[in-house]
């Protein structure tokens, strides 16, 4: 009996292969995009965790502040089991340098093996460092041995060697190892300017990149939601169409419980098939996007991420779980109705869910309420998660408002229509709104996300390139290997150019977080070209006399310190904020001091970078001359254009992944629309047949269908554009500030929006084309049958 | 950090058997070498000699509580130069032995930051919070803890420094490998042991060894057995026997007034009488130690046969008692047992 019933149930899918395809592909797409994003996030987090666990740094309390190796010895002599760590970026690269003391560092699988002969001596004398397999060090570096277990992008050196490389006498922190005796004098008493930080379980890099991953996750969820619209539509339709079958099976004696069980088995089978497909798709998506993500993370945050996937069984299981959850959400309602279905209930052709004023009212109230919530959160909320909740409320609110607004507009259209055909067209469109509303909502979400993200990226790009043009004022940039070469270079070029602008920097603690301090000479280049977001009067003169510092927008926003306030610049002490400058593409705090003050504070900082001002026409000649004279590889002499290209490249990579996901989401939405129109087309035959019988030709009806789809898509696009602009505003003014620390102006892009609207029409047209064509080619006999069938 | 692998590189670059215990048989290229007829310069020679490959400050004490219970205390600081011009690396060993337990501790330090070191005047040798300090060697305080147990002892010298071998030039093999070696064997010790069951007040005798060299062993010498004994007549006896190769025996008989007489070769008899299985190895824990020229013939017994120092280079080190022609307490060190 089971077999017979199951055969009967499955026969439906054999008769409706397109519906089957919709269901499987929809679920696979939803699962695939979600699991793909999760795979990327998991891979990145794995890399961070390995980096953080290199010395058990994620699990140990640490003492931070101005500390030296002498302080380390003092702490050890006081009985404290501590080990020093220095952390920084390898100059001129995105590589992370970790200096350790091999004698006191805790055992850790990721730390290098110093047992080969001479390894320890070389390590202690700075002639040997250990690097992750993906690392290539610049020329002139000591011997690098590959340590396979090191986290990507990591270089490990002895602490004294690392201090020499980073040009500092300080260490970043002392890690407190297990085995602290209770009678010890507190570390913060021994070193009054320090603070003890308890482990939080997440590394700095993980915190820094949280926003990026939240971003990806949000996109993954959006794609998942859009995919579920498709699945919901397909399952709902299949259940509706099989109602007569269910009734027949029940009448033949199949218990309701058994029938429900069989349908649940069917759903489980779909979960397995679609889940598998989705996971494969997710793997593909992740593998394609991961190199871009890795490049972004390294370019933006200096975070090393392996660009090959290594997936855990949990990830595979979570893929199936998401597919299962998706089907349960999409099919649960239908199953529930089935359980309560009376045996002899008439098989009413419900033609999907009928539009009811009450439903529309509820959607309208819910949507409006969500928009109000979104507005309140945008204005008064704080924090990255709130920013994303605001985004979610905005999108969902707009989606919920779509059906009542569409219905209203169509009602107005119907009331103004003249003639029977026109009135029928409007009424028919209105009648279809409930059936299409889910697909249209999906289209709205995808379009709004597209408008929002492309507006954000466009605003960012315009602001960023303008800012680069201003900031990169020097015509040529020179990088010396050491102080000696720097002096030679400076002496050589001084008569050949209008000005030599040295760039010196040092890493220190700015208001409690690692950041860079730059020394800047007083020169019209800066006075003329540096855009300041906020400044005290006479800012450049006061900077030149050493009265204070300029800080970047990130530091200003994080600390809430703007022009006129006092800021703690670590070794540079407390300084008045003279101005705030924008500093895109840099997640860390930064400050600028006048050159003389900088040199007093950081006497050990070596200036190896110079900007040269000269007539742009002379640049190629001078570049050739310098290249030959100092035997410079290309990366050590760069002209303005080269640096701009590099910076823009980092920027483009940052948003490449977002853009890819955007396109995928829009594709999924178009598919949803197509699936809905196709199934609806099949169901509408009984409504179309009387119109045909009254004398309207199939071609006119088909054209009317096509036109209606375009109208609905156009209306959705019109609603999506303001939603997208609101979305872009939230991204620029709320999420970006929280995630990156900078706020950008919103630059409208009407041409882009129009293009997108046209594309959505094209998508809708394509989606409607097949159902319309089918209608056109439908055999008159099929239409006549409608009247013969007793439905 | 894989400290074991790390320090193995440091002390033991080549296989043990080929190069003697703990790499002490390595060639001394570029390092200073001990020469005969040394003249010592104090207090400078209390401090470190960075141009020699290896050096140690080695204190052992054999103490008793009010009930006559025997305990042993060890405090050692090693210095090793990786090349003749550095870097310097330091290692500390902690030992505390009771009749039924043995506690070990080990510390490592880089040489250039002050985490470990030695200053000659006022004298202090330290690594982390383990220290041995005083104005000079006549009165020292000694502190260390391994986190579980610890000790704080005061040591007062009751006799002069003693220079072993030929005026402090101590030969270690037939082909002439040697070290500079002097001792203060006359310490009276009082202080407290912090044991798991609470503090225990103790008194007893202590012995400080100072030794430095660049290649103290023949490459084929596997290890040694070293004795320091406080005889009941006030004399002291230091004896060692190097195993492997041709073998090498030496003893310093130190009269109660500090006069030292050296004995080489067969003059010293050191015979294992009984072994115990310690850390999977057969280690002699009962010895016959005899110096017939001085009418000394003793049976030496470990207070605790399990006095195993499970450090990077593991060895046996613990307090002993002796009976026979004399009664005595003292310390025994045995290295190179596989």
Number of helical elements of chain B: 2
Q: Per DSSP, what share of the residues of chain B sits in E-state strands of 2 or more residues?
A: over 45%
How many angstroms separate the termini of chain B?
Answer: 26 Å
Note poorly predicted spans of chain B: 1-22
Query: Poorly predicted ranges of chain A (pLDDT <50, ≥5 residues)?
Result: 346-355
The main pleated sheet of chain B reads as: 13 strands, antiparallel
Gap between N and C termini of chain A: 27 Å
Q: How many helical elements of chain A?
A: 24
How would you name the oligomeric state of the polypeptide chains in this document? heterodimer
Tell me the name of the CATH homologous superfamily of chain B. Answer: AttH-like domain
Number of strands of chain A: 18
H/E element sequence of chain B = HHEEEEEEEEEEEEEEEEEEEEEEE
Would you tell me the structural class of the helices and strands of chain B? mainly beta
Determine the CATH topology of chain B: AttH-like fold
**What structural category do the secondary elements of chain A indicate?**
alpha+beta
Radius of gyration of chain B in whole Å, from Cα?
Answer: 18 Å
CATH structural class of chain B: Mainly Beta
What does this protein look like?
The complex is a heterodimer of chains A (791) and B (338). Chain A is built from 24 helices and 18 strands. Chain A is elongated and about 95 Å long. Chain A has 791 residues and is α+β, with helices and mostly antiparallel strands. Among the domains of chain A are: 139 residues, no CATH class; 139 residues, no CATH class. About 1% of the residues of chain A have low confidence. In chain A, a hairpin with a 6-residue loop joins strand 2 and strand 3. In chain A, the strands form 2 sheets. In chain A, strands 9, 10, 11, 12, 13, 14, 15, 16, 17 and 18 form a 10-stranded mixed beta sheet that branches. The relative contact order of chain A is 0.11. Chain B is mainly beta and 338 residues long. Chain B has a single domain, classed as Beta Barrel (AttH-like fold), CATH 2.40.370. Chain B contains 2 helices and 23 strands. In chain B, the strands form 2 sheets. In chain B, strands 1, 2, 3, 4, 5, 6, 7, 8, 9, 10, 11, 12 and 13 form a 13-stranded antiparallel beta sheet that branches. In chain B, strands 14, 15, 16, 17, 18, 19, 20, 21, 22 and 23 form a 10-stranded antiparallel beta sheet that branches. Chain B is globular, with a radius of gyration of 18 Å. The two termini of chain B are 26 Å apart. The N terminus of chain B is likely disordered. At the A-B interface, helix 3 and helix 4 of A face helix 1 and strand 4 of B. Chain A: Keywords: Cell membrane, Membrane, Transmembrane, Transmembrane helix. Chain A: It is found in: Cell membrane. Chain A: It comes from Jannaschia helgolandensis. Chain A: InterPro entries: ABC3_permease_C (IPR003838), Membrane_comp_ABC_pdt (IPR038766). Chain A: It is a multi-pass membrane protein.
């Amino acid at each position: 009996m089971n077999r017979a019933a199951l055969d009967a149930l499955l026969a439906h899918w054999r008769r409706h292969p397109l519906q089957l395809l919709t269901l499987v592909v929809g679920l696979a797409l939803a699962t695939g995009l979600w699991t793909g994003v999760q795979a990327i996030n998991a891979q990145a987090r794995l890399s961070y965790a390995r980096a953080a666990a290199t010395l058990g740094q994620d699990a140990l309390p640490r003492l931070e502040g101005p500390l030296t190796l002498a302080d380390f010895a003092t702490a050890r002599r006081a009985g404290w089991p501590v080990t020093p760590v220095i952390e920084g970026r390898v100059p001129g690269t995105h590589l992370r340098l970790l200096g350790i003391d091999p004698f006191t560092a805790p055992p850790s699988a990721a730390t290098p093996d110093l047992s080969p002969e001479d390894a320890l001596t070389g390590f202690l004398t700075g002639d040997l460092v250990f690097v992750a397999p993906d690392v290539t060090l610049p020329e002139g570096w000591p011997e690098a041995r590959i340590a396979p277990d090191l986290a990507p992008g990591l270089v490990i050196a002895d602490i004294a060697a690392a201090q020499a490389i980073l040009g500092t006498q300080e260490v970043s922190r002392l890690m407190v190892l297990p085995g602290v005796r209770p009678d010890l004098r507190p570390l913060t008493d021994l070193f009054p300017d320090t603070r003890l930080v308890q482990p939080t379980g997440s590394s700095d890099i993980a915190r820094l990149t949280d926003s990026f991953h939240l971003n990806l996750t949000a996109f993954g969820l959006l794609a998942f939601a859009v995919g579920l619209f498709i699945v919901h539509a397909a399952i709902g339709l299949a259940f509706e169409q099989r109602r007569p079958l269910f009734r027949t099976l029940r009448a033949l004696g199949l218990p309701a419980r058994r029938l429900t069980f069989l349908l649940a088995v069917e759903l489980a089978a779909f979960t397995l098939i679609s889940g598998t497909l989705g996971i494969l798709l997710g793997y593909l998506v992740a593998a394609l996007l991961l190199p871009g993500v890795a490049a972004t993370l390294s370019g933006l945050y200096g975070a090393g991420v392996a660009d090959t996937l290594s997936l855990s069984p949990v990830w595979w299981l979570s893929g199936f779980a998401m597919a299962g959850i998706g089907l349960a959400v999409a099919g649960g309602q239908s199953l529930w109705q089935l359980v309560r279905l009376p045996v002899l209930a008439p098989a009413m052709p419900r033609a999907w869910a009928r539009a009811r004023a009450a439903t529309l009212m509820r959607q309208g109230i819910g949507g409006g309420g969500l928009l109000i919530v979104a507005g309140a959160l945008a204005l008064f909320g704080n924090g990255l998660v709130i920013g994303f909740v605001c985004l979610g409320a905005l999108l969902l609110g707009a989606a919920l408002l779509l059906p009542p607004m569409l219905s209203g507009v169509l009602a107005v259209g119907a009331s103004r229509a003249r003639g029977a055909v026109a009135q029928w067209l409007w009424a028919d469109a209105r009648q279809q709104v409930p059936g299409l509303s889910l697909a249209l909502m999906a289209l709205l979400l995808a379009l709004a996300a597209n408008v929002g993200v492309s507006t954000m990226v466009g605003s960012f790009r315009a602001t960023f390139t303008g800012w680069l043009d201003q900031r990169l004022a020097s015509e040529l940039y020179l990088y010396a290997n050491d102080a000696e070469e720097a002096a030679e270079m400076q002496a050589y070029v001084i008569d050949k150019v209008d000005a030599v602008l040295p760039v010196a920097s040092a890493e220190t603690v700015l208001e409690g977080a690692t950041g860079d301090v730059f020394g800047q000479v007083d020169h019209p280049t800066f006075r003329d070209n540096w855009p300041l977001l906020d400044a005290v009067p006479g800012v450049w003169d006061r900077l030149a006399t050493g009265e204070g510092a300029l800080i970047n927008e990130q530091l200003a926003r994080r600390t809430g310190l703007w022009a006129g306030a006092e800021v703690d610049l670590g070794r540079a002490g407390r300084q008045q904020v003279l101005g705030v400058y924008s500093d895109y593409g840099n997640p860390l705090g930064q400050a600028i001091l006048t050159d003389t003050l900088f040199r007093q504070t950081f006497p050990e900082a070596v200036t190896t970078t110079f900007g040269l001002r000269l007539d742009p026409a002379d640049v190629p000649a001078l570049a050739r001359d310098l290249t030959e004279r100092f035997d410079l590889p290309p990366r050590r002499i760069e002209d303005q254009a080269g640096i701009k290209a590099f910076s823009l490249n980092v920027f483009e990579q940052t948003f490449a992944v977002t853009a890819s996901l955007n396109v995928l989401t829009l594709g999924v939405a178009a598919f949803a629309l197509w699936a809905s129109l196709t199934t609806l087309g099949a169901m509408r035959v009984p409504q179309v047949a009387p119109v045909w019988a009254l004398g309207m030709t199939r071609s006119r009806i088909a054209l009317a269908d096509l036109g209606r789809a375009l109208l609905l898509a156009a209306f959705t696009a019109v609603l999506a554009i303001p939603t997208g602009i609101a979305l872009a505003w939230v991204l620029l003014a709320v999420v970006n500030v929280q995630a990156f620390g900078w706020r950008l102006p919103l630059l409208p892009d009407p041409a882009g929006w129009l293009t997108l609207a046209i594309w959505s029409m094209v998508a809708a047209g394509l989606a409607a084309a097949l159902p319309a064509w089918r209608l056109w080619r439908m055999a008159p006999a099929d239409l006549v049958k409608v009247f013969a069938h007793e439905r | 950090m894989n400290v074991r692998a790390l320090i193995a590189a440091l002390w033991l670059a080549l296989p043990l058997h080929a190069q003697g215990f703990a790499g002490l048989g390595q060639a001394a290229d570029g390092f200073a070498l001990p020469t005969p007829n040394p003249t010592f310069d104090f207090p400078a020679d209390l401090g470190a000699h960075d141009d020699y490959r290896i050096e140690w400050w080695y204190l052992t004490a054999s103490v008793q509580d009010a009930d006559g219970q025997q305990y042993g205390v060890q405090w050692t600081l090693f210095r090793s130069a990786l090349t003749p011009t550095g870097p310097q690396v330091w290692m500390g060993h902690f030992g505390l032995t009771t009749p039924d337990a043995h506690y070990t501790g080990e510390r490592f330090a880089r040489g250039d930051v002050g985490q470990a070191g030695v200053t000659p005047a006022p004298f202090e040798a330290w690594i982390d919070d383990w220290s041995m300090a005083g104005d000079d060697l006549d009165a020292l305080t000694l502190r260390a803890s391994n986190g579980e147990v610890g000790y704080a002892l005061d040591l007062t010298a009751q006799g002069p420094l003693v220079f072993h071998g030929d005026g402090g030039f101590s030969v270690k093999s037939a082909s002439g490998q040697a070290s500079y070696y002097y001792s203060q064997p006359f310490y009276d010790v009082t202080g407290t042991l912090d044991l798991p069951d609470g503090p225990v007040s103790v008194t007893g005798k202590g012995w400080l060894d100072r030794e430095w060299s660049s290649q103290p062993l023949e490459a084929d010498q596997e290890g040694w057995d070293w004795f320091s004994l406080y005889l009941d007549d006030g004399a002291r006896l230091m004896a060692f026997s190097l195993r492997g190769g041709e073998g090498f025996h030496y003893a310093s008989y130190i009269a109660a007034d500090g006069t030292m007489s050296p004995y080489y070769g067969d003059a010293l008899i050191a015979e294992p009488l009984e072994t115990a299985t310690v850390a999977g190895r057969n280690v002699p824990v009962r010895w016959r130690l005899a110096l017939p020229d001085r009418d000394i013939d003793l049976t030496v017994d470990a207070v605790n046969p399990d006095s195993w120092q499970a450090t990077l280079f593991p060895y046996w080190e613990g307090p002993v008692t002796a009976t026979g022609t004399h009664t005595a307490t003292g310390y025994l060190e045995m290295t190179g047992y596989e």
